[in-house]
Description:
InterPro entries: NAD(P)-bd_dom_sf, Sc_DH/Rdtase_CS, SDR_fam
GO molecular function: oxidoreductase activity, acting on the CH-OH group of donors, NAD or NADP as acceptor
CATH architecture: 3-Layer(aba) Sandwich
Structural class: alpha/beta
Mean pLDDT: 96
Protein name: NAD(P)-binding protein
Keywords: NADP, Oxidoreductase
Distance between the termini: 39 Å
CATH topology: Rossmann fold
Bound molecules: nicotinamide-adenine-dinucleotide
Strand order of the largest sheet: 3-2-1-4-5-6-7-8
Organism: Marasmius oreades
Amino acid sequence: MSTTMVALPDIKDDVAFITGAASGIGYALTKELATRGARVIITDIQETTCQTLASELNREAGETVAVAAKVDTTSWDEQVAAYELGKQTFGRVDYFFANAGIVEAMWIPRFEADKFDVETPIEKPNLKTTEINYIGQLNTAALALQVFQRQELNRHGFRGKLVLTSSIYGFFHSVTMPMYCSSKSGILAFTRSTSDLHKGKNITINCICPNATPTNIVPPDFFIAFREQDVLTPLDFVIEQYISVLGASQDNGKAIGVYKRNAWDHPLDTYRREENRASYGLIDDGVAKAFGYWD
Length: 295
Ligand SMILES: NC(=O)c1ccc[n+]([C@@H]2O[C@H](COP(=O)([O-])OP(=O)(O)OC[C@H]3O[C@@H](n4cnc5c(N)ncnc54)[C@H](O)[C@@H]3O)[C@@H](O)[C@H]2O)c1
């Protein structure tokens, strides 16, 4: 478990693409990247905030170090268009941050058996949380991995690095947030699967899994009890975890949990794993053959 960081990697002049950059973690991360000399492609559904931040960073630097684009992460086309703008401006992208996300949207009406009977119309679920927190991040991941495949190695010896934002709910289940929790654990499973597949290909894939961090994901009042009980995770320490896996860092497949000023690489659940591997190892081999991943 680490509470203080060793020296963070040098990322000067590297190029980063960030989703959900108009607020909270994405906003703070964008500013930290720029402070460390990186170039940034700032994207969010809140276009004006992205443009304002880009102008501010460019004014401070006296050159173009930032571009902004409206990107709804559920739109593949908008993500590609923002990447194209970034490539045109900066030549390549070293880091993709799949970060945009929202809190739980209630997905089906709550269970009140006394108010429902077989004649009550069945409602279509609201899958917005899954669409943004899972599909939206996978769109960014699909973009990143295809861009990396087409790029030369950078000065650190990497084609590129993908960092996804999972959550403490990637590890632990939630009684009240089934959509949030399943999306975040999906992102964790995706990180572990694809980082293994891309091992040795000069690509790294990691995810950051913060506990409750004060941002605009919920109204400010929500955090009052957390402050009173001293259980908030500081935003600056969360941002350090994102920076820690960049540059020449060899970290790959990490799921970095963050609670208060503690960060740790969360271990894989290995309960009865070896016994099951006899079978699921064959499944992986079969799929690998079908997809041409290995012989
Ligand atoms: N704050 C926490 O306690 C916490 C803890 C763990 C994980 N996270 C995750 O961190 C990420 C960032 O959240 P935050 O806490 O900074 O919240 P935030 O609300 O402050 O920022 C999220 C940003 O994402 C943007 N966004 C929402 N939907 C979008 C979409 N479809 N396309 C593009 N942008 C979109 C919003 O406009 C906003 O600017 C999320 O994935 C969230 O689940 C947050």
